Amino acid sequence: MTTYYDVPPEQLIVTLAERLHAFDAITPPVWAAHVKTGSHRERPPTQSDWWHTRAASMLRKVAKKGPIGANRIAQEYGGSKDRGVKKNKAVSGSRNISRKILQQLVESGLVDNSLNAAGTVNFGKVLTPTGHSLLDDVAHSVRNHAEEIYPELKRY
Hints:
Elements: H1 9-19, H2 50-65, H3 70-76, E1 79-81, E2 89-91, H4 95-108, E3 111-115, E4 122-127, H5 129-149
Antiparallel strand pairs: 1-2, 3-4
Helix pairs in contact: 1-2, 1-5, 2-4, 3-4
């Protein structure tokens, strides 16, 4: 069976973003059309469907790096801030966007909280079996197209 590790992320994320439209909980807020995705950006995203693309990318990151929290995910989407004459500085992306998308993924049942043995401390978000099966289904559907572009994937 093909897993999300076996296909290139750019193909997986595009197809997964299309599948996330079926989930009612994953919808962009009203302000999403006008907001920058971090303080290092100069303009808002030009892509009309950037919210679902970011949600698909975050779902993949939770699967690969989980348990992971909103702060760490915001750092993943950060970049270099242009500070004029001074040296550039690394800054994180928008924590509000990361938090809202993680909340929507939890509400849709694809991601869940990871608690310690006592059930008192939240260690971050992890993938649920539903989210894992969705990622694997998308990876399986993308596999043939990925093998056409990258013939060396046939060995795996």
